[in-house]
Design a protein that fits this description.
Homodimer. It catalyses: D-glyceraldehyde 3-phosphate = dihydroxyacetone phosphate. GO terms for molecular function: triose-phosphate isomerase activity. Its EC number is 5.3.1.1. It is a single chain. The chain has one domain: TIM Barrel, CATH 3.20.20.70. Helix content is 40%, strand content 16%. By secondary structure, it is of the alpha/beta class. The two termini are 13 Å apart. An eight-stranded parallel beta barrel has the order 1-2-3-4-5-6-7-8, surrounded by four helices. α7 (140-152) crosses α8 (179-196). It contains twelve helices and eight strands. The protein binds 1,3-dihydroxyacetonephosphate (13P). Residues 10, 96, 166, 171-172, 210-213, 231-235 line the site of 1,3-dihydroxyacetonephosphate.
Length: 254
């Protein structure tokens, strides 16, 4: 299979220059498993991308948190995929639930964004996940399958895509999915990819979990066979992010 463990740190809309410098210096000073074992990607707000890119250790990479759906131009307030490429930013997060729910980005719009970002040479962390209401109504798989379908419809090459399953009820709530809950959805998503894309894509695509991941719960989650890493919010702004990166070691021993 060979799916390299992936840990993303999504800083969301947080940080000042001073805080950014402090977090970067903490990240730079700690030992973590080698790049053969874990791929680490840090995602600061747009305005801090150049600072983080120029000061972060070379074995960690950077991601934007969003980009425009097509070529840049007269789109006030947007940042284009071309600009990220121009700044040598290799990754972008697309379809985070905060953008889906607060900014009303639809499945189709997100599919278009993923396709355009890939076409420009960016690698994409594509986010999906159900709300509490949807989970309680028993429609989790239906929701995440529809979200994945809208992405799959526009993607022909999955090599540069990481799928992030982030149940909305677990984001920023301290209410992490249990290892069994995460494994269940990840395994169903892999089956969905197998049936609707290809067995090769299903076997090789990393499906990472996000939602209240901490140093305390990451090892148990990482031990699940279909959990290939994490997208971390709050804890990525703290030194414990290093411990979450180290949970990649769990995988090495399984
Ligand atoms: O949304 C997330 C990462 O993209 C998860 O956020 P928290 O880790 O703060 O719950």
């Amino acid at each position: 299979m060979g799916r390299k463990f992936f840990v993303g740190g999504n800083w969301k809309c947080n940080g000042t220059t001073e805080e950014v410098k402090k977090i970067v210096s903490i990240l730079n000073g700690r030992e973590v498993p080698s790049q053969d074992v874990v791929e680490v990607v840090i995602s600061p707000p747009f305005v801090f991308l150049p600072l983080v890119k120029s000061s972060l250790r070379p074995d960690f990479h950077v991601a934007a948190q969003n980009c425009w759906v097509k070529k840049g131009g007269a789109f006030t307030g947007e940042v284009s995929a071309e600009m990220l490429v121009n700044l040598n930013i290799p990754w972008v997060i697309i379809g985070h639930s905060e953008r889906r729910l607060i900014l009303k980005e639809s499945n189709e719009f997100i599919g278009d964004k993923v396709a355009y970002a890939l076409s420009q040479g960016l690698k994409v962390i594509a986010c999906i996940g159900e709300t509490l209401e949807q989970r309680e109504a028993g429609s989790t798989m239906e929701v995440v399958a529809a979200q994945t379908k809208a992405i799959a419809a526009k993607v022909s090459n999955w090599v540069d895509v990481v799928l992030a399953y982030e149940p909305v009820w677990a984001i920023g709530t301290g209410k992490v999915a249990t290892p069994a809950q995460a494994q269940e959805v990840h395994s169903e998503l892999r089956k969905w990819l197998q049936a609707n894309v290809s067995p090769e894509v299903a076997a090789s695509t990393r499906i990472i979990y996000g939602g209240s991941v901490t140093a305390a719960n990451c090892k148990e989650l990482a031990a699940q066979p279909d959990v290939d890493g994490f997208l971390v919010g709050g804890a990525s702004l703290k030194p414990e992010f290093i411990d979450i990166i180290k949970s990649a070691e769990v995988k090495k021993n399984t």
